[in-house]
């Protein structure tokens, strides 16, 4: 039994370096393993891509979420969002603990930008309530993001008991901080960097982060510390920095 939970979130840029110059999914797996997270929230995960498989000799045979989980995370869920000829990509959650149920809710606001909310219930040994996790990657346009945040709010109110531990993490594309006004004010969540450092973390671009796009919101936890993983070697893997946090269940 443990009351401590270590989580991380990362937009993995479909397993490619900047400008899609080279496949970095193998180095990415090593870096994710080194984080030692119990649950990882991933965005822009490729489930299948026939052209990449033909073009690159080192392209994994397995879907990226399964390849990254390896022997470290015993369970995983994948939410297919964008579907195209010969492939698809979306969000994924990798977990050291069993995922007892999951659902991917389509929150796309137009056909050119497919988005989903990947919601998992995870059974953590010794916890009376399952851990609820939602992996998000919101749209690029403010009006669409507002609709997606309202959909997220409805899902939490309808499907997550108030006394259940909850983590919502991902790439919010939230330039103006509107997510906090909904998630913090309406749902009483807390963003881990706002708690530990006073403001959401700068996470983009990963070489020298300027913009606060990625977040980890929690409810039912005390946050011990939070960290931004940027600069080399992370900046060789994705244009986003990885975020991680260690929490204690209340």
Explain what this protein looks like in three dimensions.
With 250 residues, this protein is α+β, with helices and mostly antiparallel strands. The protein has one domain: Endonuclease/exonuclease/phosphatase (Deoxyribonuclease I, Chain A). 23% of the residues lie in helices and 36% in strands. The protein has 6 helices and 12 strands. Strands 3-4-2-1-12-11 form a 6-stranded mixed β-sheet. The model has no long low-confidence stretch (mean pLDDT 90).
Note the main attributes of this structure.
about 250 residues, alpha+beta, globular, Deoxyribonuclease I, Chain A, about 25% helix
Topology at a glance:
Blueprint: E1 4-11, H1 25-35, E2 39-49, H2 50-55, H3 64-69, E3 75-84, E4 87-95, E5 99-106, E6 116-122, E7 131-137, H4 142-159, E8 166-171, H5 178-187, E9 190-191, H6 192-197, E10 214-219, E11 221-229, E12 242-249
Parallel strand pairs: 1-2, 7-8
Antiparallel strand pairs: 1-12, 2-4, 3-4, 5-6, 6-7, 8-10, 9-10, 11-12
Helix pairs in contact: 4-5
Average residue pLDDT:
90
Largest beta sheet, briefly? 6 strands, mixed
Amount of helix: 10-25%
Mind telling me the C-alpha Rg? 17 Å
Termini gap: 14 Å
Uncertain stretches: none
Summarize the structure.
The chain has helices at residues 25-35, 50-55, 64-69, 142-159, 178-187, 192-197; strands at residues 4-11, 39-49, 75-84, 87-95, 99-106, 116-122, 131-137, 166-171, 190-191, 214-219, 221-229, 242-249. By secondary structure, it is α+β, with helices and mostly antiparallel strands.
């Amino acid at each position: 039994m443990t009351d401590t939970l270590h989580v991380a979130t990362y937009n993995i840029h479909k397993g490619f370096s900047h400008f899609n110059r080279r496949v970095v999914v193998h180095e990415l797996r090593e870096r994710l393993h080194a984080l030692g997270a119990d649950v990882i929230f991933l965005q822009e995960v490729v489930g299948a891509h026939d052209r990449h498989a033909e073009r690159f000799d080192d392209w994994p045979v397995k879907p990226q979420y399964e390849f990254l989980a390896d022997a470290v995370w015993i369970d995983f869920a994948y939410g297919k969002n964008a579907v195209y000829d010969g492939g698809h990509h979306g969000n994924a959650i990798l977990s050291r603990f069993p995922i007892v149920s999951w659902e991917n809710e389509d929150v796309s606001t137009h056909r050119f930008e497919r988005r989903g909310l990947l919601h998992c219930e995870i059974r953590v040994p010794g916890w009376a309530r399952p851990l609820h996790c939602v992996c998000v990657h919101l749209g690029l346009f403010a009006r669409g993001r507002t609709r997606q945040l309202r959909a997220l709010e409805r899902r939490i109110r309808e499907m997550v008991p108030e006394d259940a531990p909850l983590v919502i993490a991902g790439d919010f594309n939230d330039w103006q901080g509107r997510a906090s006004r909904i998630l913090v004010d309406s749902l009483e969540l807390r963003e881990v960097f706002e708690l530990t450092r006073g403001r959401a973390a700068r996470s983009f671009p990963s070489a020298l982060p300027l913009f606060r796009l990625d977040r980890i919101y929690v409810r039912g936890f005390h946050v011990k510390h939070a960290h931004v993983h940027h600069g080399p070697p992370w900046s060789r893997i994705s244009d986003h920095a990885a975020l991680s946090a260690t929490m204690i269940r209340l």
